[in-house]
Amino acid sequence: MKKQVVVLEDNPNIRELIEYILEDNEIDVVSFDTVTAFLNALTEISPDLFILDIMLPDGSGIDICQRLRSNSETRQTPIVMISAHFSRMPTDCDAEDFIEKPFDIDNFVARVERQIA
């Protein structure tokens, strides 16, 4: 059974690149460009990994990370934060990994696969 990754990324070029990379590695991807769309679908998805951009037009990936960690259904699901505006993991988010944009594609895939293994 294929693994599923949920991506919350507002930049359409980066979101499409991530979708392409992961689907090319036989990983199902469900992506969202806003916090609102993500939250509206949250009860209908059960991914193996969340990839969250930190800075979003209608909210913060950090707030979403905290919300996922406080929810009993998503508490154990790994989270990878990504950002072009931060150089390291924010301390107020309990994510498993942080990837700075721009990222190396091979490194990105390896880190995602490590989280969903």
From TrEMBL:
Coiled coil: none annotated. The keyword DNA-binding does not apply. Keywords: Phosphoprotein. PROSITE patterns: RESPONSE_REGULATORY. The keyword Phosphoprotein applies. Residues 4-116 form the Response regulatory domain. It holds the Pfam family Response_reg. The modification 4-aspartylphosphate is found at D53. It comes from the Bacteria. This is Response regulator transcription factor. PANTHER family: RESPONSE REGULATORY DOMAIN-CONTAINING PROTEIN, STRESS RESPONSE REGULATOR PROTEIN 1.
